[in-house]
Amino acid sequence: MSTTTVRIDRDTHARLVRMSKLAGVSLGATIRDATEALSRQRFAHRVAAEVAELRNDRETWLSYLEGAESTSVADGLD
Length: 78
Prior knowledge:
Elements: H1 10-23, H2 27-56, H3 58-70
């Protein structure tokens, strides 16, 4: 795996090192985990904003709900 250098302030570096030590993982793993968590958080915020926008238009929201009810997903649950 190739690597690169990222410049961060000392306080953030110290926090990341502490988090890594507490978790018993490398600093790189902590940064990867933090990046993934931030990515998921931002995705969730975008979805929430889009749902809020849908809900602002009653007709569009009802159409969305109707479509959601008629969609089936094979999840193996009965």
